[in-house]
Predict the structure of ATP phosphoribosyltransferase.
Amino acid sequence: MSDSRRLRIAVQKSGRLSKDSIELLKAIGIKLNIRDRLLIAHSTNEDIDLLRVRDDDIPGLVMDGVVDMGFIGENELEEKMLERAAAGKPAEYEVLRRMDYGGCRLSIAVPNEMAYDGVNTLQNKKVATTYPYLLERYFKEQNVNAKAVMLTGSVEVAPRAGVADAICDLVSTGATLEANGLVEKDVIFRSKAVLIKRAGDFTDEKAQLIDRLVPRIDGVMQAKE
Ligand code: PRT
Ligand code: ZN
């Protein structure tokens, strides 16, 4: 099973960040034996184990020190950090590198027919989102009294379903918004994937391994530019 002497890295099991994260690890010379159904994948040439989980779990695994590092979207990381800080749980981490993949924005979008004149238009309205902490922080900064309604999926159908007046969701091409009769209005957060490291001490072996890996990541990213 897992061995605490080995560096543990959390990656999304299957989703938008999985392929790029695994390809990066392979590109920096880590040989991986990934079997689809298994939570853990062991490297055959480095003292590294991968933990393959849902992206939602990655910030907490790093902040609780269960894994040493993780690849995660900044949107998810920042949301979980705010959620944990509000609950008085440890929310520390260090960003080692910002990656060149996973780019998206968290935006407020409203139905085509809504007359929208800035975020004040949402005063006393309901906004469906998977990111209530980020959205409420934005409302607070903008002095808008609106309510974030938490939905873990199908956010884009909330206005049509009568669940909310507007939404705040991740956007990359904008095709999903358009298909649902929504218009993007305010970008509240811009995100990319990042590689993060837990707080606290590392053994010399792990610290040296991290010091060897990070420059290789820089090399791979520079070669792509
Ligand atoms: O199962 P698990 O919980 O691990 O995965 P998930 O479904 O929560 O996440 P996943 O794989 O969808 O996204 C993982 C991360 O990818 C997000 O947290 C973001 O950091 C990043 N990312 C980049 C995106 C997008 N681009 C994106 N377009 N995440 C979601 N989307 C959604 C968007 O909201 C829309 O519904 O993809 C759909 C298509 O977007 P458009 O704008 O191109 O139509
Ligand atoms: Zn998720």
Notes: The chain has two domains: 7-102+192-224, 104-191.
